[in-house]
């Protein structure tokens, strides 16, 4: 009798799976999502639901049509959908997350080979696509609490800083931390995002390197350069999409470096570009473009930052 | 004492509770059962039989050897008639020529066995000869002839003799039991080794998950100035030679080099006991301790077996498999690096440390999916390689890139596959490509040698 299974080593595997990682990301995003819904109302929830559902449906349809294995149960499409919704203003039309999800899932992700093969962050690519195609709808900010379409149009704190008509007070600082400021649904509550980020680092889902170095770089550069003669580096950390971008977007596995040194370069690069765009660029906010630009550098970064192997022969200098 | 370790590595569930507290139990082969003595149980030249079919052999009789230096003789572990010399399966899947002896159950010992040596009055050459003549090889898994290891090139000064008692493979408990039950023998064997290298320090490295073993060994070493016990962090692959050396001495064995190049000799606990038996009791290597474990066996435990028994003999004598939950996978060794076997009719050899019998549930390997570039394989690779990248090179058949990115330095520990959330067969693809590329390298070297020789001959002919 010889009906025993023969297979290659190792014969045990860790419990962690793609699904468990993506579930952790969803858990980490939950506090910020809840805060977004609290400040921007039921319409925010509607956008989130539409966005997640359409991302999952597009992934399912594409894989079905292309006769590929259906992988929606790995939850990666749900994460993309949620991130996209968090990157939208609450006043965005309800069809917009559908268009964005289609772009994120089909063009940015599946056409390049699906999960793990996308060279840029799908949610950010979709955001950039929407911003370029529907600039007015994507930048119609509303004050928190003024729910829905009746909302009063207003400017984000970053635009205020840029235009020089905002001189933040300590009350503004508290609002920035709690999320009581105009902005995208998921980006305003800095505390919730930091909590989520810490959760991911504790669970070893992401490394501390990209987010910590990214945020630190923005802090230092903003403190050094200042704007309009005012230096408010701490305040600038908590407004705009920095926390969301640093913890959840720049750390996207497929489009960030895998080497420890590469992750440090990624953090530095994102921080530098974000600060430059914020202070000198045409846009008030530079998080998404800085991450997208750094995404394009990742293959190069990974190539030149490979770790020195254990027991590497000493390099003989000529 | 501060527990030491290496960088990176993984923490698989250790599974040792099944057999750790089971004392070593002797099991002897049944009368009239056949024992198999494969000619190659070590790294180096295979042996040739010294006996023929029909001969009567006794316990401790040398039945095969090779004139090569890099080899190790083989001894009969029972008495009986040589009934055949035929190919036999060994763990790892190869078939090797083996001497088949039918056990007469009398255990008649060969003359001159049990001759006690006083190592303190012997020269180093005599000690090494004694170790060689006892057939001692590295019992931890590789089977490197011990007399070769203990005699490194003259220009390499040995500062440390490290006893590898990490036992980092999940489920295995043989080294643990030996340290608890035969701690004095371990110390005596190590003293013999230190006699060969009097300026070296003896360090016994034990993982922190074996506090009783640390205690027992510390007690056994009391009052011996040149032997210490070093606790190690429980982490796989702590027992990898290069990583044990790094943990204890902070020295890196360079790519392609042996431990002696870093001034170290590393031997497994059971190997040291084999040395002790050879010198203090004049008995060659005829037995070893095997952990029989896994969810599929009735009586998991540590069994002292006679070499040459088949795994089937061991399972039967130890009470068999569970009827209600039989194993579906047989592993000769631990779950991280042990090869699977398709049958129980495989001969045990000097390096067989365990038979792990996994049930269907324990043996489940989830299907592969896309690499998500999470970088966990990079974070955990003890050699600091980039397994996901090597995997891509392997799948695309890009051998040159594979070698350029140090694929040949992989120690095949399987940490990458263990950690991978996409459940990719990283270690498998890397191992396969390593074989292909190492073969190409060897072929190229052989071709260069042949061409050089042909050119030399042609030059001579032209003279």
Describe the protein.
The complex is a heterodimer of chains A (318) and B (463). Chain A is an all-alpha fold and 318 residues long. In chain A, 59% of the residues lie in helices and 1% in strands. In chain A, α1 packs antiparallel against α2 (42-65), α1 packs parallel to α3 (76-86) and α4 crosses α5 (122-133). The termini of chain A are far apart. By secondary structure, chain B is α/β, with parallel strands linked by helices. Chain B folds into two domains: 1-13 and 30-285, Rossmann fold, CATH 3.40.50.11540; 376-442, no CATH class. Chain B has helices at residues 124-132, 146-149, 174-181, 183-196, 211-220, 241-249, 269-280, 311-317, 376-380, 387-396, 399-404, 415-419, 426-462, and strands at 25-26, 34-38, 48-49, 56-57, 62-65, 74-75, 80-89, 95-103, 160-165, 201-207, 227-232, 264-268, 287-293, 301-306, 329-331, 340-341, 354-358. In chain B, α5 (211-220) links the parallel β10 and β11 (227-232). Chain B starts with 24 loop residues before the first strand and ends with a helix. The mean pLDDT of chain B is 90. The interface between A and B is large, with 42 and 65 residues.
């Amino acid at each position: 009798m010889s009906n025993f299974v023969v297979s290659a080593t190792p014969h045990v595997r860790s419990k962690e799976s793609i699904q468990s990682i993506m579930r952790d990301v969803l858990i980490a995003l939950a506090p910020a999502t809840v805060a977004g819904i609290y400040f921007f109302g039921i319409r925010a929830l509607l956008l989130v639901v539409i966005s997640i559902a359409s991302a999952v449906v597009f992934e399912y349809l594409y894989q079905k049509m292309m006769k590929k294995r259906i992988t929606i149960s790995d939850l990666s499409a749900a994460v993309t959908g949620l991130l996209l919704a968090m990157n939208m203003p609450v006043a965005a039309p309800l069809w917009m997350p559908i268009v964005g999800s289609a772009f994120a899932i089909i063009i940015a992700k599946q056409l390049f080979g699906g999960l793990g093969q996308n060279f840029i962050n799908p949610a950010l690519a979709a955001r950039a696509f929407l911003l370029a195609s529907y600039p007015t709808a994507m930048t119609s900010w509303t004050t928190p609490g003024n729910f829905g379409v009746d909302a009063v149009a207003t400017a984000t704190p970053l635009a205020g800083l840029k235009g020089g008509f905002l001189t933040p007070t300590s009350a503004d600082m508290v609002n920035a931390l709690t999320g009581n400021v105009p902005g995208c649904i998921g980006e305003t509550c800095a505390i919730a995002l930091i909590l989520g980020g810490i959760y991911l680092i504790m669970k070893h889902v992401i490394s501390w390197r990209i987010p910590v170095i990214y945020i630190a770089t923005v802090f230092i550069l903003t403190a050094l350069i200042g704007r309009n003669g005012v230096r408010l580096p701490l305040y600038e950390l908590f407004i705009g999409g920095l926390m969301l971008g640093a913890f959840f977007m720049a750390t996207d596995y497929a489009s960030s470096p895998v080497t420890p040194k590469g992750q440090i370069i990624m953090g530095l690069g994102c921080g530098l570009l974000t600060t430059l765009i914020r202070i000198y660029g045409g846009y008030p906010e530079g998080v998404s473009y800085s991450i997208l630009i750094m995404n394009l550098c990742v293959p190069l970064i990974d190539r030149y930052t490979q770790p020195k192997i254990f027991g590497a022969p000493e390099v003989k200098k000529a | 004492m501060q527990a030491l370790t290496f960088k990176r590595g993984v923490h698989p569930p250790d599974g040792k509770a099944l057999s750790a507290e089971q004392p070593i139990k002797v099991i002897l082969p049944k009368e009239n059962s056949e024992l198999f003595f494969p000619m190659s149980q070590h790294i180096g030249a295979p042996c040739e039989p010294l006996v023929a079919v029909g001969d009567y052999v006794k316990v401790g009789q040398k039945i095969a050897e090779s004139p090569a230096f890099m080899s190790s003789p083989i001894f009969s572990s029972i008495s009986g008639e040589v009934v055949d010399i035929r190919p036999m399966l060994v763990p790892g899947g190869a078939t090797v020529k083996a001497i088949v002896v039918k056990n007469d159950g009398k255990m008649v010992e060969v003359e001159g066995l049990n001759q006690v040596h006083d190592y303190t009055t012997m020269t180093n050459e005599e000690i090494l000869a004694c170790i060689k003549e006892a057939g001692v090889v590295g019992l931890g898994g590789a089977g490197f002839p011990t007399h070769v290891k203990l005699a490194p090139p003259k220009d390499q000064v040995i500062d440390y003799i490290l006893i590898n008692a990490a036992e980092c493979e999940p489920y295995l408990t043989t080294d643990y039991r030996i340290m608890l039950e035969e701690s004095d023998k371990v110390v005596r064997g190590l003293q013999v080794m230190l006699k060969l290298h009097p300026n070296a320090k003896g360090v016994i490295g034990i993982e922190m998950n074996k506090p009783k073993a640390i205690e027992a060994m510390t007690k056994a070493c009391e009052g011996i100035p040149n032997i210490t016990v070093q606790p190690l962090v429980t982490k796989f692959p702590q027992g990898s030679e290069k990583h044990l050396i790094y943990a204890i001495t902070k020295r890196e064995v360079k790519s392609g080099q042996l431990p002696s190049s870093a001034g170290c000799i590393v031997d497994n606990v059971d190997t040291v006991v084999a040395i002790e038996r050879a010198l203090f009791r004049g008995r060659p290597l005829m037995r070893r301790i095997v952990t029989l474990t896994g969810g599929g066996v009735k009586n998991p435990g540590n069994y002292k077996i006679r070499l040459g028994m088949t795994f089937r003999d061991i399972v039967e004598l130890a009470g068999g498999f569970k009827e209600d939950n039989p194993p579906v996978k047989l592993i000769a060794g631990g779950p991280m690096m042990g090869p699977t076997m398709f049958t129980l009719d495989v001969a045990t050899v000097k390096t067989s440390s365990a038979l792990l019998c996994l049930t269907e549930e324990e043996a489940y390997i989830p299907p592969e999916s896309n690499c998500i570039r999470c970088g966990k394989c990079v974070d955990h690779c003890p050699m600091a390689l980039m397994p996901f990248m090597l995997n891509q090179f392997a799948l695309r058949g890009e051998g040159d890139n594979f070698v350029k990115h140090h694929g040949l330095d992989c120690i095949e520990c399987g940490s990458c596959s263990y950690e991978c959330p996409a459940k990719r067969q990283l270690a498998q693809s890397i191992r396969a490509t390593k074989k292909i590329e190492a073969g190409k390298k060897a072929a190229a070297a052989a071709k260069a040698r042949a061409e050089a020789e042909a050119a030399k001959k042609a030059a001579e002919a032209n003279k």
